[in-house]
Amino acid sequence: MKKIKGNSVSSGVAIGKAKIIKKQELHIERKKIHRNEVKVELSRFKEDINFVIKELDKLIQDYTYSKENRDILESHKMILQDPEFKNRISKLISDELITLEQAINTYFNEAIDIFSSMSNKYLSHKVNDFEDVAYRLLSHIMDERKDVLEDVDDNSILIMENISPSFVTKVFEKNIQGLCTERGSRNSHSSIIARSMNLPMLVNTLGLLGNINDGVDLIIDGNNDYVIISPTKSVLEKYKAIYKEEQNVRKGLLKLIDVESITKDGKKINLMSNIEIPQEIDQVLKYKSAGIGLFRTEFLFIDREDLPTEEEQYEIYKNIAEQSLPNSVIIRTIDVGGDKLSNILNIAYEENPNLGYRGIRISLQNIPIFKQQIKAILRANMNGNIKIMFPMISGVNELHKVKEIIELCCDELSTAGIPYNADMEIGAMIEIPSAVITSDSIAEECDFLSIGTNDLIQYTLAVDRDNQSISDYYKPTHPSIIRSIKLTVDNAHKMGKKVAVCGEMASEIKYVKLLLALGVDELSVSPGRLLIIKKEIIDCDIAEMKTKLDKILTCKTSKEINKLI
Predict the structure, then answer these.
(1) What kind of fold does domain 35-141 have according to CATH?
(2) Of the residues 180, 502, 540, 555, which is catalytic?
(3) pTM for the full predicted model
């Protein structure tokens, strides 16, 4: 038995037999054509483009089950319909006298090289999209398509180096158990589709292909981010029981969609959703979330070669706000490190980006960019259901600056005669120790606080949450973390302000009752976790948990706290 770590696209367990899928190699012959053959190659190009576009249309019509799936496959059509693409292929064939296959291969290799050379890992899914379109087009032209899924049955877990968005759609049709890829990220287009289809998937499982053979027993543990190869009989039986329980729980949870999040002792808890991309709004609405407690806007900045315009941001924020009515949407301004924006902001290399140029610091040092985002949010707030939240606040001085900028944006919009609504609550993320200690002052300047437990743990315990070698030091129930949450809640309540938790602790069943006993007013979780957390809230007796609180707050170790909760 062997375990390999990865990144889970969605939680849950999958059990099946390994099926290794290798990408079919396309061998493109290099040869020159005669001048009188150019017209023939151009005619082939037109016919083949039309064929592949029709093929994508069929995929969209027959095998897409959500808006994001359609959008991704539509983007593949746009690549094929791009006038620049068509002009470049025509020019390569006419000027260099090469075959259609060579011209297409050259064009896509150039595009892929451009994206691959960028020091921004978030552009990897663009590479995947271009690879997918190139392979689809070339395999059709060369008539070398082979059904690699021919021998795949519904007991299979597919193992691949990487996977394209359209291939995920094909895989779903086969009703397989799950997917594992050596490369990829949980925010790629492929992952988005898999998540929307509730298909268990683990990405970035480095070394998997070198440690596995076809047909071996395999378990995807999406709850703990690893894949188990050739599990022992006892481990397999254990996971079969977990899988069966998960299926039963999922069926039962659907009955809670229309049930309010009220604890046993009668306290209503606002249970909201965290979203990273606009397409996730479908799930938010499906599960009837109480609103969006955290709309991360990073996707607008890191998934591209240039900065988003105010108009582009406005349209996205407006659409999300309108779809969420009558519930509120909390939009968090950009929260990434300078390393993620270095390609478009010309930021110098930093030895430690986590302690450097990131969060609100980037916004306050790039005022024109910050103002564009603020203006877009103000304009999108015409229905009055948008709130704004600022990340990595260390003290009130940053909030003073933020408020000045908001006021300036309002003046500029008024002067330009552009409609906006400044009646908007302002919130601060509490995620570093200085913010916890001065949370009374911060709460006085804000309408609400939201605790980002991921970074709060990282900065309080001085442990990189992405560093597996020191993962044992990352303890959500470390006494300092529990006391920090309690201090923040108490300080906010003294000022009559509510406190939410939008970090991963809110999505973990084992911490929900503790957070509510600490006085947290609202929880915001990923849409896929909403119903299971709602069940935990409904089953919670806050008063009962509070009887343990004094003892919990005096515990000296995380182990003692875990035992009590």
Answers:
(1) Enzyme I; Chain A, domain 2 (1.10.274)
(2) 502
(3) 0.69
